[in-house]
Amino acid sequence: MKYPCAESGRNKSAGRSLPLVTPYFTRATGKRRFFALDEKPDLLKHLDTIDQRAWKQYDAHLRRIPPLERAEFYRGLIEQKKLRSVCALARLLGQQEEGLRPYLNLLKLPEPILRFLKENRTPAFVRYLSVKRLQPLVKLDAREAWRRFQQMVMEAKGQPSLWNKAGQ
Fold it and tell me: Helix 97-105 and helix 131-138: axis angle, to 10°?
């Protein structure tokens, strides 16, 4: 099966022009070029082709974004693009499903924890309250999750907590 040419929007087999509806951008890795069928990230719109160095810088920027903000971004993409599953989101972003699911699970945290994470975005909290640390709270009931979260906040502030002493 012949696919339409991305640059010209022409289908060579039919000889007629087709409108290019899906936005795309190219990403270069070494000698290979990849076409990503999506909008170019806002921070990279000024580049014609995204090379490996620029993509690494963009990826480093994404790692500095607080986990809850990423989770809300992913949820917004699912709603905006009307995706039906995390698998579809993973395909859209070109990432592993296992890497996206923990972020989306953070949205299941109790409301007081979500409110605290939205209001307190100091670098110390953002660094300490990572996805790996917040993920176990999703499995706990609301009261126990809040109690454990308060202990985590104390640890982030540099104060010892009873949780660490009990585990030693």
Answer: 60
For the chain, the first-to-last Cα distance in angstroms comes to 63
Measure the CA–CA gap between 56 and 50, rounded to whole angstroms.
10
Q: What is the CA radius of gyration of the chain?
A: 21
153 pLDDT exceeds 70? yes
The beta strands (E) that lie in 4-156 are given as 10-11, 16-17, 25-29, 32-36, 49-50
Our measurement of the distance from residue 108's CA atom to the centroid of its chain's CA atoms, rounded to an integer in Å, reads: 16
Look-up: residue for tokens 């000889």?
Answer: 15
Choose among 168, 139, 134, 138: nearest CA to 151: 134
pLDDT of residue 48 exceeding 80? no
Q: Is 55 left (phi over 0), alpha (psi -120 to 50) or beta?
A: alpha
DSSP letter at 42? Answer: G
Regarding pTM above 0.70, the answer is no
For the chain, the 3-state helix, strand and coil shares in percent, each to the nearest 5, are 55, 10, 35
In the chain, the domains with their CATH numbers are 10-60 (no CATH), 65-161 (1.10.10)
